[in-house]
Amino acid sequence: MKTNYARNLPHIQPIGATFFITFSLYGSIPKEKIQQLQQERNAKISTIREENSGNLKENLDIAQRRYFQRVDAVLDSVEYGQKYLSNVQVAQIVANKIHQYDNEYYVSHWRDFSFTYIRENYQYLLP
């Protein structure tokens, strides 16, 4: 298993670590809302870079965490989209697909994993 790689961001996968992964359905958050949150985050990052208070990396990390918290809060409110996962049959289709991929793709090196869905987003715990 590769423990370090880069795509858009560097990723580290320490051997033996536990991962918490969240994903949502397309359309759960309207494009305009995502753009608004991104613009607010980018403005905050610009301000942090301009001030350059000496804690640049830490302040940028905090801004990024706050952005993700705001996205999670929007997902938790589920004011948008079709709420497909409220339909037990649809939720079961997704769950079956996750189990089908067990030992095939992204969870091939995790043996006992669990997942749940909360409104329109899924959450994995990969020990």
**Which radius of gyration do the C-alpha atoms yield?**
18 Å
SS strand fraction: 15-25%
Instruction: Tell me the structural class.
Output: alpha+beta
In whole angstroms, the N-to-C terminal distance is: 15 Å
The low-confidence parts are none
Q: Would you count the extended β strands for me?
A: 5
Number of domains as seen in the coordinates: 2
Shape: flat
**Number of separate helices:** 3
Helix/strand order: EEEHHHEE
Mean pLDDT: 74
Report helical residue fraction: 40-55%
* Strand order of the biggest β-sheet: 3-5-4
The biggest beta sheet is recorded as: 3 strands, antiparallel
Q: Could you walk me through the main structural features you see in this protein, from its secondary elements to its overall organization?
A:
There is one protein chain. By secondary structure, the protein is of the alpha+beta class. It folds into two domains: 70 residues, no CATH class; 49 residues. The protein has three helices and five strands. Helix 1 runs antiparallel to helix 2. It is flat, with a radius of gyration of 18 Å. The mean pLDDT is 74.
